[in-house]
Amino acid sequence: MRFLTGLLIGLAIGFVAAILFAPESRKREERGWEPSPEEEPEAAAGGNHDFFGALRQAVRSLQAQVQEAWNEAGEAAQEAEREMRARYERAAPKKARSRR
Q: Cβ(63)–Cβ(38) under 8 Å?
């Protein structure tokens, strides 16, 4: 449970960092300034589009990270189960012989 809590907190921090530190779009870099909505309505709408595009990309990245963590957790669980079964099988014949 602590692992999942830590994983979720880490993913949330990563998501926020990705949004905050994402590079600006090329259009804004080329202009060097951002017009007000009164000056250029298309640019203001484009700014929202850039934000939602970055948000969408961050969510996809988060989904990929969660899926990767889920797969790793499943593999670790399977490996742990195999190890426990092998230990049990090694210990079970010894117990059966000691009872005789």
A: no
Question: Residue 72 has what pLDDT?
Answer: 94
What phi-psi label fits residue 40: left (phi over 0), alpha (psi between -120 and 50 degrees) or beta? beta
* pLDDT: which is higher, 24 or 9: 9
CA-based radius of gyration for the chain:
26
Q: Under a CB-based contact definition with an 8 Å cutoff, are residues 12 and 60 in contact? A: no
CB 11 within 8 A of CB 65: yes
Q: Is the pLDDT of residue 37 over 60?
A: no
Q: Which stretches of 1-100 are assigned E, i.e. beta strand?
A: none
